[in-house]
Write a structure and sequence with these properties.
Number of domains: 1
Strand content: 25-35%
Number of helices: 6
Radius of gyration: 16 Å
Protein name: Bacterial bifunctional deaminase-reductase C-terminal domain-containing protein
Structural class: alpha/beta
Shape: globular
Helix content: 25-40%
CATH topology: Dihydrofolate Reductase, subunit A
GO molecular function: 5-amino-6-(5-phosphoribosylamino)uracil reductase activity
Pfam family, one: RibD_C
Strand order of the largest sheet: 5-4-3-6-1-7-10-9
CATH architecture: 3-Layer(aba) Sandwich
CATH superfamily: Dihydrofolate Reductase, subunit A
GO biological process, one term: riboflavin biosynthetic process
Organism: Nocardia donostiensis
Order of helices and strands: EEHEHHHEEHEHEEEE
Number of strands: 10
């Protein structure tokens, strides 16, 4: 049975995006953080994105190896681009130009159960606040990983809003001193 990891970046005050959906606060140059992300990407069998996040990231990552925003992105780009992408969308027959990619949507709970029942490496939800919440609502998350950025954003889109009570067990807390980011890993 396949595990599902939710890996999200949040601020100290719990925001995963600015009020306009902006993520400009995420760009940091931290080789240790890049090592962590490369290790995670190398250990999973696929990435799961919400449709909005997929569309946004598809504008950046295919060319990031040659035009990276940070030095680490050049290293991460082949990993991000090479992994299968599963896009959560309600669009019928969506166009998915950033390949390899497939979509799930209308019978979401059933498709998530099927994904988890399959053999293979874990899957990781990397982007999409709504998508991460949907997996949490289904109680389908085996591991929650939060990269907590040293910033009080003050307003924006919170990762956790009205949802189920889910007890978690801390399995790792690791600081990345260069950027001040702290990894918090929890098992459900």
């Amino acid at each position: 049975m396949r595990e599902l990891i939710v890996q999200m970046m949040v601020t100290v005050d719990g925001y995963a995006a600015g009020a306009d959906g902006g993520l400009d606060w995420i760009e940091v140059d931290d080789p240790e953080l890049d090592d962590y992300l490369a290790g995670l990407l190398g250990s999973v069998g696929g990435q799961i994105f919400g449709r909005t996040s997929y569309d946004l990231l598809a504008q950046y990552w295919p060319d990031a190896e040659h035009r990276p925003a940070t030095p680490g992105d050049a290293r991460l780009a082949p990993l991000v681009n090479g992994l299968p992408k599963i896009v959560v969308t309600t669009r019928r027959e969506p166009e998915l130009p950033w390949q390899p990619a497939t979509s799930i949507g209308t019978d979401f709970a059933e498709q998530v159960a099927r994904l988890k029942a399959a053999e293979g490496k874990p899957l990781v939800v990397f982007a999409g606040i709504t998508t991460a919440r949907a997996f949490l609502q289904l109680n389908a998350v085996d591991e929650l990983r939060l990269l907590v950025f040293p910033l009080l954003l003050g307003a924006g889109q919170r990762l956790f809003e009205d949802g189920p009570r889910i007890p978690l067990h801390l399995i790792e807390a690791r600081p990345f001193p260069t950027s001040g980011v702290v990894l918090q890993r929890y098992r459900h």
